[in-house]
Every structure is written in C-alpha cells, then in structure tokens.
Write a structure and sequence with these properties.
single chain, 473 residues, alpha+beta, 22% strand, FAD-dependent oxidoreductase, FAD/NAD-bd_sf, FAD-bd
Length: 473
C-alpha cells in the first residue's frame, strides 16, 4: 500500500484517486476550488462553480475509449452519470437503419458517455465520497513540494505543503492539476530540473453554445464533426436533452471573430441544414462562450534514463495536453491512470526511482502514440484551415490524415465505413488499421481519389456573407 496525494479533483484526478484507492492505496485528493457539488443535474449545472476549470461549462463527451475503460474500472461512475440523466449511447443506437444498415456486432464499442461536464464530475464526486481509503479535501491548495532525501543527486518528493492543512506526507504525489499546473515551478523550487517539454502552438479558438431540445418527441442529437472551408463545426449531445454546438476556428482568423456575437453565431449555424433543423426545436441555455485553444504539449519527467525527481508523476493535461475539440484528453488521461496503477503493482512504492522511470517507459509504449496521432491530426487540420483562409492550395497531407478525411466523407454513404470511421474517431483504431475493417478497403481504394475536400458544406464566402449580413459583428 502507498500513501498517495492527488493534486486536482477534475475528471482525471478523481479517476486516478478512485482507481488507486480501489487497488488498496490510501489516497488524499487536494482541490483548490472550495465548492462541494450538491443536488441533481440542473443544480450542478446552474450552481456549482469551478473557477479553476476554464472549460467547465463548455461541451464535453467521453469517447468510446474512455467509456470502455470506465466500464472496466469505474462502472459505478457510469451508473451515477445515468442516474443523473446522462446517457451511455452510440450513433448506431439512434441513427436510422437505412443509414447504419441495421445493428451489427461490435456496435456497442462505439457508445460514448453523453453528459455536461458538471454532471460527469458530479457523478465522480458522489462515487468518491463512498469509496473506502479515499478523502477529497476542497479549498486546499498545494503550495509547495516537500523535499525528501535525494538519491544520486535526484531530488525526492516526500509530499506537499498545503496552506492551513500544513505538511501532507506521501509516498507518491500525482499531479492532475490540468493545463495550468504549476508543478514545473514547484519542482524547480526544490532544486529539480524542469520537465523536458515539447510544445505545438497551433492556434485554435472555439465559439460555443449549449442548447436544449424543447420537445420530448424530437429525435436525439447525434455527435458530429463537420469540416468545412476555413473552420469546423462540432455537435456534442449531453444529458437532459441538452447539446453543445461549437465552431472551431483559427485564432488569427479575424474575419470569424464576430462569431462571439449571438446573432452572428446563429446566422452561421443556419448555413448547415441539419444543424438548423435541430436549432429550430431548441432553446439556448448559454450565451456564446469563447475559449482559446491551448497549445498541444507533452512533458517528460525522465531525461534520458534519469528522473528529474522521484516521488512525483503527472497525468492528464498536466502531462499531455491536446486540442480539446477532438475530445481525446480524458481518454488519454484515464489510459495514463490505468498505466500508473499497473506500474505501482509491478514496482511498488519502495523503489521510487524505478517507479518513475517505469511509468515513463509504459507511457511511451501505450499513451504517447495516442498523443502523437492527435497532434498529427491537429497539425493537418490547421494547415488546411490556413490554406483556406489564404485561398492557396492545401499542403500535401500525410497518409493518416488522407485516410481520416476520406473515411469521414465516405461514412455518410457506407455503413461499414461509418463504423470504421467511428472507431477511429473514438480512439479505438488507428487510421491505417481502420482500412482493414471488413468492407472498407475496396470502397476506399475506388472512391477516395475522387472525393472533393468539402462536400455539402458552406463555402468560406458564404460564411463571411452571413457574418456581414446586418452588420452583426
């Protein structure tokens, strides 16, 4: 058994706490935001304040990879999400048989968890409260690290100092403080080197609204990502017949900045016929929310073969951060959590240097490839968007991006390709592996070379005209 302190009670921090506590460890979670969630889904949405999580009321959906891991590791969390009104459901469950070809084995793999972020996190909080060996302390901020005895010049973290709670000793500190984590500075303060960092500032920005379907007899919203000239549109269904729609754009695209205006946002949404139909039977429950996309970033806490410190690891956005419009951060985070649990079983807390290096090795094998694929997709999409803005030819695409774009287009007409694309989108298959799914390669080889880049979506000129209509910017 190890004494573990988890810093941060977000989705990945609570997942880490639950998984480790259930494996027999004594876990304390420190969360700087003081409010404790209470009530049902609407209370959580309306009243729970999480100033430490900038995306708390933006769209979320837990992809198929996260859902599969949660079914194995956190089934009671999924049950609590459903009790609060969330859904575990997939596109094949709601799309018409004429589109899907009817049910097929494996369709259950494509089910996602659909709920607003406060509902998802509230479900985890409720389960954590009844988990033996797990304590969550809210309104407690980790201010600094406790330095233990160094080994061969490598500083050792022996716990944290946490304001009025004083010193909290631990065998392992798990950083789950998200994209703004101060861990690098905290490590420097005890004489450790800073983590080895890779950054890609791709420059996305999001203009989003949450909406609610007005009538119970309206068909359910299906998740979608629609790439068009100069931007993308995402639709993410949630609980209580709510959903979010957002425009993913280049931050330097000044012509699209008027999308922060509600009337402009509505005019542009109306250019997409399917979305306009849903909007006609919906009411907005938020204004337009603007969120700049954080840079894609990976931190490594082992330099070569030597840890920069022992007794501390990072998970989720604190270690690997990706473009949130792809919705893969929580899947990457929960995968890391399971890797950490397995490494603790293998190594134990008594060998702190081996624990840190083995965790880094295991992440390179199982988690970093997920990050790399996501980053490659981000780069390719932003390169397309910048070419659209400039009116220049698109740069050559790598093989994975070419497969992704073609399968997205072909998924609208072929049930087998629809499933392969959905598996790829849900982080279950790699793009080139998706071509080996039954019934995919022959159609892909025949039709992919002739596909238009954008079909059935508004042009950039049409979007700009909608923005300028009535001077709404």
């Amino acid at each position: 058994m190890a004494r573990v302190v988890v810093l941060g009670a977000g989705l990945t921090g609570l997942a880490a706490a639950l998984v480790l506590a259930r494996d027999g460890h004594e876990v304390t979670v420190l969360e700087r935001d003081p409010a404790d969630p209470v009530g049902g889904a609407e209370d959580l949405w309306e009243h729970w304040q999480r100033p430490g999580v900038s995306q708390f009321r933006l769209g979320h959906m837990m992809m198929g990879r996260w859902r599969r891991l949660a079914e194995r590791e956190l089934p009671d969390v999924l049950a609590e999400v459903e009790r609060l009104g969330g859904q575990v459901i997939g596109p094949m469950d709601v799309l018409p048989p004429s589109f899907t070809g009817g049910p097929r084995p494996g369709d259950e793999d494509l089910r996602t968890v659909q709920a607003r972020r406060p509902v998802l996190e509230g479900a985890m909080v409720a389960v954590a409260a009844r988990t033996p060996g797990l304590v969550v302390r809210r309104g407690v901020k980790a201010e600094s690290l406790l330095r233990g005895a160094a080994t061969d010049g490598v500083p050792h973290v022996a716990g944290v100092r946490a304001g009025r709670d004083g010193e909290i000793r631990a065998d392992l500190v798990v950083d789950a403080m998200g994209r703004r984590s101060p861990l690098a500075d905290m490590l420097s303060a005890i004489g450790a080197r800073r983590p080895v960092e890779e950054r890609d500032q791709l420059g996305f920005v999001y203009y989003a609204r949450h909406l609610r379907l007005i009538h119970d007899d309206v068909p359910q919203i299906v998740p979608a990502i629609i790439d068009c000239e100069g931007m993308s549109v995402l639709v993410l269904p949630a609980d209580a017949r709510t959903y979010s729609a957002l425009f993913s754009c280049a931050a330097d695209d000044r012509a699209l900045r008027p999308l922060r205006d509600e009337q402009v946002w509505e005019r542009v949404l109306a250019l997409f016929p399917n979305l306009a139909q849903a909007r006609a039977v919906s009411e907005p429950i938020t204004p337009v929310q603007v969120m700049p996309g954080a840079e894609d970033r990976i931190l490594r806490f082992v330099d070569g073969a030597t840890p920069i410190a022992t007794g501390v690891v990072a998970v989720g956005d604190a270690a690997m951060r990706t473009n949130p419009s792809l919705g893969r951060g929580t899947s990457i985070g929960l995968t890391q959590v399971c890797v950490l649990r397995d490494v603790l079983r293998e190594v134990g807390p008594g060998r702190p240097e081996r624990l840190v290096t083995r965790f880094a090795e295991a992440c390179e094998e199982t988690v970093v490839p997920l990050y790399r694929r996501t980053l490659a997709q981000d780069r390719s999409r932003m390169a397309e968007i910048q070419a659209d803005i400039a009116g220049t030819p698109h740069p050559p695409a790598g093989p994975d991006w070419s497969v992704t774009r073609a399968l997205a287009a072909l998924s609208r007409t072929d049930p087998s390709i629809l499933r392969a694309y959905a598996r790829m989108f849900n982080h279950i298959l790699e793009p080139r592996t998706a071509l080996d799914e039954p019934g995919v390669r022959a159609t892909y080889d025949e039709l992919a070379p002739t596909l238009p880049r954008y079909a059935g979506t508004p042009t950039r000129a049409q979007v700009l005209a909608a923005i300028d209509d009535g001077g709404g910017g």
